[in-house]
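Comment thread on ticket #2218

A.B. wrote:
> Attaching the input chain for the structure job we discussed in standup.
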Amino acid sequence: MAERRRLLQGLAGLGLTAAAWHRAPARPLARRQVVDQAGRAVELPGRIERLVTLGSLPVLNSFVIALGAGERLVNGLADFDRPTWRLQRLFAPQIIAGPTLQQPDRQPRLEALLAVRPDLVLTLHRDAADRLAALGLPVLWLRWRDPQDVRACMALLGEVLGRAEAARRWLDRFDAVLRRLQQRLGDVAPAGRPSALYLQPQTLTQPRRIAEWWIAAAGGRSVSDDGRSGESRSFSFEQLLAWDPQVLFVGSRQARDRLRREPAFARLQAVRRDRLAVAPAGLHSWANRTAELPLTLLWAARVLHPARLADLDLAAEAQDFYAQLCGRRLTPPRIGGVLAGPD
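C.D. wrote:
> Ran it. Output below, let me know if you need it in another format.
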């Protein structure tokens, strides 16, 4: 009884009532145990039917959809319902009317979360994983920051969702792309690797740490790669001029147009030579953490080495990726919209 009282007091402290807790029907008894990427042992039902993603929703949803399990998502996109992620609504249409389970600051709406009775909650935020697990919710913490995390994350999700074969197909494609690029670009001398930067011009930041990796893997040299551990790196305009990258990657057509329009940026060689690349966006922006990482590498390599990859049909590569992994063949106009990137 003392333990039960402590749990109910904890729920009250989080804004939940005992009545709300009692209203949630009991979940099926756990029939297996898995270990997440924090080393936490988590008990789960034999099959995951009701899946919730919290925190970085577009990233997590892309993993689930690429494993062919998008129909199991029960939450909506919340504050992330933007055109950048238009394919998520196509591959998992139920999320359009799905409940909002997190607040604008990405903290969970706990009573609403309990009400949907998830079989599993996925999050990239360790503090949220610990907090929800303390309430008795089955929650897995996933890590996807460094290249070595990619294989472990997809393999774990494949196991948990009963989609091990789909995870193997994704991993095989990822490795095949790396081999292709090594064959095409492996003999490029360091001096032949263009200097590049993934830039958010309105804030003068490199917004995603993973871009340091995919620029290098695609045959470039990221000027902002300083070994940082944080997601974003800010810098001065003077530093940007000193770097003077040969290629600039941006997240939207609006950002590209800003670089072309504002006179100060004309001092950069990438702007003068119009070597400005807008990241495609499907399930998520290809420049960020996304299950579309194999496509990211091909796109970036073609931008950095257009002569060596002149025969690469990126539209066909994207068409095959979404058909084989996500389960739906997209029309050429839709693929064109993905490759054009967001406004």
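A.B. wrote:
> Thanks. Noting for the ticket: Residues 27-146+154-162 form a domain with the Rossmann fold fold (CATH 3.40.50.1980).
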